[in-house]
Write a structure and sequence with these properties.
eight-stranded mixed sheet; alpha/beta; Alkaline Phosphatase, subunit A; 32% helix; homodimer; globular; 14 helices; five-stranded antiparallel sheet; 2 domains
Chain lengths: 403, 403
C-alpha cells in the first residue's frame, strides 16, 4: 500500500484542535563558525517553552542536499512526497492570485521581457517594471483571442510577472519553457514534450505572437517568456486524506494557492498579529486544523539581513503566543525550508521542528528551540512529509495499522 | 533489486549464535513531562550493560505517526516491510494455534457474540465466556458441513475467540468483516471485495447461518462474528532469506504464528524464566538464531499500570541475564512497538533497540538502555525492518555488496 493510502485508511476522527504554524525559512546558519543561528540568537520564550515541553527534531524538506521552493516545501509539510506529487509553477502562480482553476486548465508563468530588434533577449525581466505597469500590460494580454474554442486568461502576479491559463480544450500540460535563461539569444520555442501537448504548444506560439504585437509600443516590456507549464489536477484533499477540517491563514498569494490545492478553506490575512489571530479565531468556528503562514522570516533571510531575520523570528514567536490564547490541543512549528541570512537564499539545511501536545517523548536536552538543540530532540531526523502524520498522531487522529 | 532480494543475495554462513529478544511494547512515555519512562525507571542491569557495551538506537515500527499491531510489528522485526507484506488476522490466528495452513487456505477470526431476538448484537464478546466453554462451542462449529468440496475447519483460540479455515476450493481471501464494531445493530454481511472472493462470501454466509443454528441453545454465545479474512501464502522463509537456522520461543499463540509464517521452528514456552531458558537451550542444539518473545510488558502497558510495567521490564531483564548464560555471540533487544502505560495502547513512538556483539560503534552517552539515552545511540533513528540486517551484520552473516 502506498504511503498516502495507508494514512488515509488510518484516519480517525477526534475533537482535537491543531495549530500548524509555518514560519517560512526559519532555519538558519551562524554568522561565524560555532556561533548562534538566527533562531538561536532570537528571544523566543514561546517557541522555547513548547520545545521543552514537547518533542523536537530536524526535518529534511525533500532529499538531503537539495533546497526547495515554496511549492514543494509546503506540499511536503502537507504530507506529500514532492518528488512524486509535482505541481507546476504556472499552476501555483494561478492559484496564488486566487484564480479559480478547473481540472484540465493549463497554466504557465509569464515574465515580461525585453527583446532587441534582432529578436534576442536583452533583459529577462523587462527592467523589472513595476506592478502598476505590469498589471496594465497583463490586462492587454487578457484581451488576446486565440480564435478557437480555447480561451486564454491572463492575470497579473507582481511587478514583471503574470500568468496565463489556457481553458477549454483537450490540452496536455507538458510544454518546454521559452525562457532561454540567458541574454543575447532569442526566446526558445514552446516545444511539446508529448502528443497531448502539441495543441498546447501551437496555442502558446500564437499567444506569444499576439502578445508581442500587443506590447509593440513598449520599450522595456515588449515581449514575454513562458515557463512552468502544467495542467491543473486537484490533489487529494486534506480533509479526505486525514479526516480534518482544514483552514489556512496566509497573507501571500503563493501560500493561499498551495492551501487551496489541498482543499483548505483560505482566510486572507494581513501581515499583523491581530489579523492572524482574528482570522484564526474565525477559522476555528468551522475548522479544527489551522495552517498559519508567517512570511517575513524568509524575506529577511533572502535579504541577507541576519538581525532583521532575528527580529522577525521574535515577532513570529509573539504571534504564536497570541494564537495559543485561542486554545489548541496540538501545536506544530517548523518552516518549509531554511533561509540562512548568510546564504541569502533557500538552503538545503534541515529545518527545526517542534510538536507540542499530549504523549510527547522527552528531548535529549532542554535547551529551547534551535538548530543545535533539535539535534538531540525526541523526533530525531525526519523528512518534512512525516511531520503531519506525527502531528495528527499526537492529536489522536491516526488509527492502528494491523492487528 | 528489491530490498529482500539484496539481503538474500548477500547472506553468508557463519558459526555465530544470535539471540533476538523481543520485549513486547517495551517503549513508553514519562508519567509527567520531562520524567522517566517505564524502561528508564526500571532497574535493568543487563539491558544497561549490553546497551553501554553495544550500540543503541530508536526504531520506527512502520511509518512515522502510526501505531502497529503485533502482526506487522513482528514482520518488520523479521526484515519485511509491513506495508508491502501484509498478513490477515485470520491467518495469524490459525498459525498461532498451531494449525497447519496450506497455500490457498482462507482463514478468518471468529468472535462468539450475543444477538438479541431482533438479531442485533448486544455483546461483541458473548459476555467474555471462558476458554472451557469457548473450546466446546468451537468443536460444535468444527462439525459444520458446507455440503460441497470446501471443508471448514474450526479451532478454538482463547476465551470467546476462535478461527475458521476454508479449504479445498479456488477461493479468494478478500471478504469484509461481519463485526459491526458496535452494539444495537445486526452483524454485517460478509461482502466480497473482488470476484475471486465471491464464492468465499457465499460459504461464509452459509457457515454463519449454520453456526447460529448450532449455538441456538446458548444464552450468551448464540452467534458468531467473522473478521480478518485472508488467504494463506507462505512468506519467504527466514532460513532462505538470511541463511540462519531460526527458532522461536514464545508463550502466546500470536507470536508462534508469525514465527511459523517465516519458517521458524517453534518451541511453546510457558511464561517463566526457567521455561524460556530450557527451551532456548533446546533450540540451540539445532538452531543458531533464537527469537525469544516476552509478552507481559505489553499487557501491563495496555492495562495502564506504569508500576506493573516497570516490574515486568525488570523481569524481562532478569530473564535475559539467564538466557545469556547459554552463550550468544550477538544479542538484540527491542520491542515490536511502544505501549506507554499513560497511553494504554500500542503507540507510534519509536522503540528503543540495542545490538550487542563484536564491532559495535560507541553511543553518544553511556546512560544504559532508555528512550532518551537511545536518542544519541550509535544506531541513530532507524526503521524496525532494518534491525535484523544490522544484527546479522554483527554476527558476520552479511556479505559485501559489489566489488
Amino acid at each position: 500500500m502506498d504511503r498516502l493510502s495507508l494514512y488515509r485508511s488510518l484516519a480517525r476522527p477526534a475533537e482535537s484542535r491543531i495549530l500548524y504554524y509555518v514560519v517560512d525559512g526559519i532555519g538558519g546558519l551562524p554568522r561565524t563558525p560555532g556561533g548562534q543561528t538566527e533562531l538561536e540568537a532570537a528571544n523566543t520564550p514561546t517557541f522555547d517553552r513548547l520545545a521543552n515541553e514537547g518533542s523536537t527534531g530536524l526535518a529534511t524538506p525533500v532529499v538531503p542536499g537539495v533546497a526547495v521552493g515554496s511549492g514543494p516545501g509546503h506540499l511536503a509539510l502537507f504530507g506529500f512526497d514532492p518528488t512524486e506529487t509535482t505541481v507546476g509553477r504556472g499552476v501555483l502562480a494561478a492559484l496564488g492570485v486566487g484564480f479559480d482553476l478547473r481540472p484540465g486548465d493549463v497554466a504557465a508563468r509569464i515574465n515580461f521581457c525585453t527583446l532587441d530588434t534582432d529578436g534576442n533577449v536583452t533583459d529577462r525581466r523587462a527592467g523589472r517594471i513595476g506592478s502598476e505597469l505590469g498589471a496594465a500590460l497583463a490586462e492587454r494580454l487578457d484581451d488576446i483571442d486565440l480564435g478557437g474554442p480555447v480561451d486564454c486568461i491572463v492575470r497579473h502576479v507582481k511587478e514583471y510577472r503574470a500568468c496565463v491559463v489556457f481553458r477549454g480544450g483537450e490540452l496536455g500540460g507538458s510544454v518546454a519553457d521559452t525562457d532561454p535563461q540567458a541574454t543575447g539569444v532569442p526566446p526558445l520555442e514552446p516545444c511539446p514534450h508529448d502528443e497531448m501537448s502539441e495543441p498546447t504548444a501551437v496555442l502558446a506560439t500564437e499567444f506569444i505572437a499576439q502578445a508581442s504585437a500587443a506590447l509593440a509600443d513598449q520599450e522595456q516590456a515588449n515581449a514575454i517568456l513562458l515557463r512552468g507549464f502544467d495542467i491543473f489536477a486537484p490533489l487529494p484533499s486534506f480533509a479526505d486524506l486525514y479526516g480534518v477540517k482544514p483552514a489556512a491563514v496566509a497573507a501571500y498569494p503563493m501560500y493561499r494557492g498551495v492551501a487551496r490545492l489541498v482543499g483548505m478553506s483560505v482566510f486572507d490575512a494581513e501581515d499583523t498579529i491581530d489579523s492572524r489571530v482574528d482570522l484564526t479565531g474565525a477559522a476555528l468556528e468551522h475548522h479544527d486544523f489551522v495552517f498559519v503562514h508567517y512570511k517575513a522570516t524568509d524575506s529577511r533571510g533572502e535579504d541577507g539581513d541576519f538581525d532583521a531575520k532575528v527580529e522577525q523570528i521574535e515577532l513570529a514567536d509573539r504571534s504564536l503566543a497570541a494564537l495559543l490564547e485561542l486554545g489548541f490541543d496540538v501545536v506544530m512549528v517548523t518552516g518549509d525550508h531554511s533561509t540562512p541570512a548568510t546564504y541569502r537564499a533557500h538552503s538545503w539545511h534541515p529545518v527545526p521542528v517542534l510538536v507540542w501536545g499530549p504523549h510527547c517523548r522527552v528531548n535529549g536536552v532542554a535547551a529551547g528551540f534551535g538548530e543545535t538543540a533539535c539535534l538531540s530532540g525526541a523526533l530525531g531526523s525526519l523528512r518534512s512529509m512525516d511531520i503531519l502524520p506525527l502531528t495528527l498522531a499526537h492529536a489522536g487522529r491516526v488509527g492502528k495499522f494491523g492487528a
